[in-house]
Amino acid sequence: MQQSCLTLGALGGRHTFNGQAAEQLTRHYPQFGEIRYFPTSEAVLQAALRGEVTAACGQEQTSKDGFHVGMQARISAPGSRLYAVAEIAQAYHCSLLGKRGGRREQVQRVLGHSGSVAHCRSWLERNLPDAAIEIVETNSIGAASAVLESDGSVASVGSSNLAKELGLTEIARNIDDSSVVNYWAVSLKPMFDPMPDRVAVAGRFHGEGEMSCMICAFRDSGFNLHAIFPRASGTVLYEYDYVFRFWGGGTLDDVQSVLSRCPSVRLAGAWRSCGVPDKGASLS
Question: By the 8 A CB rule, do 132 and 110 touch?
Fold first, then answer.
């Protein structure tokens, strides 16, 4: 892909976890020259679907919970127009944020975005068994703002940089069990790389031999099957809408040649990776 000033939608601001991932994406994929922030994850995706931004930054999968079902469902749905165009893996490094001078024993409520709370719930339930855990509708900035307005009994899950920006205290650090998240940039524009090392393919199968033939053809073209996401069609047994992930190396022409023999699928992404960190490693 040629360098240009494409826009990338992200959640909340530069110190949310999604915002940090978006910044990493712009570093590794310089065709994204601007980040625009939106209050909710759904608003980020809708902005991409309306063409207000070129692509949306969203979770593809996590080390803790596996595939992000919402993202995979958007890609795998019959008639989907979304493409994966870039990706970045990032360690979370969640902190428990409190009002300056606050102590853990004061905390009665913990607020956070659904994604970060999911990674920290075990720690929170183990270390704050009497505290209520609440999911905010917006993002970690909104949760942290509520901490500022509290009497010290409210804490939130957020990043170290967010604590610094708002003047909050990190009551505890790295409370997410070293979770790593893989983010995709998804777009209505295919933006296929001519020499991809990552390929995503989406299609509906009902046990046909075409699926096995496709996987073998990709292997013969230099791409090995890496992961499969299945989503039941909801109509008949054994019928699923799939997202196949392939890793390897080859040309876009090779990829399209394979798919020309597989009418049940579409090319949902062909891009170059920027590396995947070991569990617990930070990209920031």
Answer: yes
127-139 burial: b if 16+ Cβ within 10 Å, else e: ebeebeeeebebb
Beta strand ranges found along the chain (DSSP E): 6-11, 32-38, 55-62, 66-67, 83-91, 95-98, 109-112, 132-135, 154-158, 169-173, 180-187, 198-205, 223-232, 240-248, 265-271
pLDDT tens track for 168-181:
999 999 999 999 99
For position 282, what pLDDT does the model report? Answer: 33
On average, the pLDDT of the chain sits at: 92
CA–CA dist 282, 180 (Å, integer): 9
Contact between residue 93 and residue 116 where contact means Cβ atoms under 8 Å apart: no
Which class for 176: exposed (0-12), middle (13-18), buried (19 or more C-beta within 10 A)? buried
d(CA 197, CA 146): 43
CATH number of 192-273: 3.10.129.10, 3.40.50.700, 3.90.1150.10, 3.30.70.260?
A: 3.30.70.260
For helices 252-259 and 209-220, angle between their N-to-C axes, nearest 10 degrees: 160
CATH topology assigned to domain 95-178: D-Maltodextrin-Binding Protein; domain 2 (3.40.190)
Q: For position 4, what pLDDT does the model report?
A: 64
The pLDDT, as a whole number, for residue 35 is 97
Q: What is the mean pLDDT of residues 102-112?
A: 93
